[in-house]
Amino acid sequence: MSSENYLQVTDLTVKYGGLLAVNKFCMTVKQGEIVSLIGPNGAGKTTVLNLLTGFARPSGGRIDFRGRDVTGLPPAWIAANGIRRTFQQNSLMFDLTVGENIRAGLHTRVSTGLFASLFNSAAFREEDRTMRIAVDRVLDAVGMQAQRDVAARNLPFGDQRKLGIGIAIAAQPSLLLLDEPAAGLNPDESAQLTALICRLRQDGITIVLVEHDMRVVMGVSDRIVVLSRGEKLAEGTGPEISTNAEVLRAYLGDGSWAMPATVDSEHNQQEG
Ligand SMILES: Nc1ncnc2c1ncn2[C@@H]1O[C@H](COP(=O)(O)OP(=O)(O)OP(=O)(O)O)[C@@H](O)[C@H]1O
Ligand SMILES: [Mg+2]
Fold it and tell me: Which residue, 172, 191, 213, sits at the end of a domain?
């Protein structure tokens, strides 16, 4: 497999009743890239992530991941093979602590049984130690060591979003799909998020980012793909997209979105 076709989406289509939610959508992501998927509300962005993770089945088209056809495979298979996602709405276990939420994200099969755990056997202690190290790694990555024992429901909103990313990266995915991670964050929090996404990429994770916050998008993206009414409207670098007349028209019509005049990654880094 060349890095050119790490993730390749070809003519992906899904129909809901009479609605073509995604129509002949094509996208390629190279290994190590951060590609943003943007577009007005209802454009089909979350649906693309659902299709990539097996949460929705396409009516047509094909998804290849690391040279293998994964179209229509079940979510558990896709997750086990290195594609993880976050959700547009928080999907935390609110009664559990930060550490326990991340532990759940590890999905490590507990090989030692109840009997062993009751008697605190060596095997059980070893497994527990391995889990603790893995949880520590994630807490360091998302900068949440101090909140390890805080119940998820008591976290500030921005930290709940960060924890969602922590759960998704716990199993060390190679491809991470983020669905509006900056939604509801204040400018400080979204600058921190920008820095976190850049660190994840440095750690070797390839990222597809769905996001409305253009500071975050412009701060991290190698390329941007624009979706409108289920179809690809444009693709290019930040500067290309922010001056593309068709893109601006789509967004002006939508009214939900304003393309900032000048944002660049340096600006975002300084804020972080
Ligand atoms: N399971 C479903 N059944 C029927 N229609 C659906 C389903 N999932 C999505 N849709 C429709 O598909 C279209 C695309 O929705 P989607 O959630 O992918 O948009 P989006 O780009 O993520 O929007 P937003 O920015 O608001 O999150 C919408 O018209 C939505 O109502
Ligand atoms: Mg969405």
Answer: 172
CATH code assigned at 215? 3.40.50.300
Predicted local confidence at residue 172, as pLDDT: 92
CB 148 within 8 A of CB 97: yes
Indicate the pairing of strand 34-38 with strand 223-228.
Answer: parallel
Number of domains in the chain: 2
Q: Ligand 2 center to residue 88 CA distance, Å?
A: 6
Helix, strand or coil for residue 23?
strand
The average pLDDT across 134-155 equals: 96
Are 151 and 197 in a shared domain?
no
CA atoms within 13 A on the CB side of 119: 7
Would you state the pLDDT for residue 271? 37
- Give the Å distance between the CA of 212 and the centre of ligand 2: 10
Which atom in ligand 1 lies closest to the alpha carbon of residue 88? Answer: 27
* Ligand 1 pocket, residue 179 CB under 6 Å: no
Is 21 near ligand 1, meaning CB less than 6 Å away?
A: yes
Is the CB–ligand 1 distance for residue 226 below 6 Å? no
Residues 221-268: tens digit of each pLDDT: 999 999 999 999 999 999 999 999 999 888 766 555 555 443 443 343
CA–CA dist 115, 107 (Å, integer): 20
Ligand 2 center to 87 CA (angstroms)? 9
Kindly report the backbone phi and psi dihedral angles of residue 11, in degrees, each rounded to the nearest multiple of 5, phi listed first: 50, 35
pLDDT digits (tens, 9 = 90+) for 169-202: 998 999 999 999 999 999 999 999 999 999 999 9
268 close to ligand 1 (CB < 6 Angstrom): no
- Pair (128, 61) in one structural domain: no
